[in-house]
Amino acid sequence: MDNYQKKSQNFSVKLRRLKALVIKEFYQIIRDSSSIMIAFIFPIILLGIYGFGVSLDMDNLKIGVVLEDNNSKAQSFFLSLRNSKYFSVQVDRNIKKLQKKLEAGEIRGIVTVPFYFSEYLNRPDRKAPIYVVADGSEPNTANFVQNYLQATWSNWILQEAISSGKQDGPIIDIQPRVWFNEALNSRFFLIPGAIALIMTLIGSLLTALVVAREWERGTIEALMATPITMKEIYIAKTFTYFCLGMLSMIVCTVISIIVFQLPFLGSIIPLLIVSATFLLTALGTGLLVSILTKNQFLASQISIVTAFLPAFMLSGFIFEISSMPFLIRILTYIIPARYMITCLESLFLVGNVHRLLIINVSIMALVVVALFLIIFTKTKKRLD
What we know:
The protein is built from 14 helices and four strands. It has a four-stranded mixed sheet with strand order 2-1-3-4, sandwiched between helices. The two termini are 40 Å apart. The protein is mainly alpha-helical.
């Protein structure tokens, strides 16, 4: 019974110490404006940049049209380009003027309707040509120009054939259906990934900076002079900034739904579980960096390199993982943001896909366990 009472007393003492440390950390957060800025102001700014300033949708592509043929058919094709939402058309009969604009980056492509366009259109032995020049300095934009023009051309040919009654054979009616993002709005794809990147950055920075600051200011020495263990210090800091990070995640989610009209088809509890697990990976990364460096500037730089950049480049947020080299694809399996982005896309756009969520959360939980095992094995109550 005596051993049991001693263990019980020791446990209650540890709980009181942890409670005191947590209260101290919360007071420190209130007095320290930098933590508030990292947790709330910084995410709002980044979310605004990704939500308002970044888009993969290509509308109103600026192109030039050289209209050498004045026939009604050529005019009809020109009108189909001008009325398309995908193009902003500038017309000129002098191709050299448009070439100068293409070289200056003022337009992204040139479409030439030759003078023999209408003549060839009425001859069964010839095909009516149009010529397209795209700006290859931006390959993605050049592909958009060519693909959109091909689609516009094909649609115009079909409409002309129907109106003239010369359509041969059955008309194939393709009725595409797009699941989970019917409008193909790139914002719905970008914002879940942006939230994962933001949580990676602020989670790693919060613990990396504040713990390193304790070492720089010498306040960690005062804590070491008390019966408090280093594990208790790190647990208290992790818990405190975990609460701050979860509040930041809630703010980002609310802004995404209300401001950016992002649909949320999942449930709150799975979102909280996913967010909590992922946030612990970011906090653990920052804590480990701060323990190893003990310097704010160095800790912030290493946190960006080890947490943010891998999350940005290897998570599938911007670059397709399947197109990466084999060794890089293997490396992506240890990047927690890869699983967080998949979970967020599912919760926002699809719903509660439980099998996917359980697998991804389990992998992130293994990363959390590995990080904190390393942290606690490295933790020693000494100044060196």
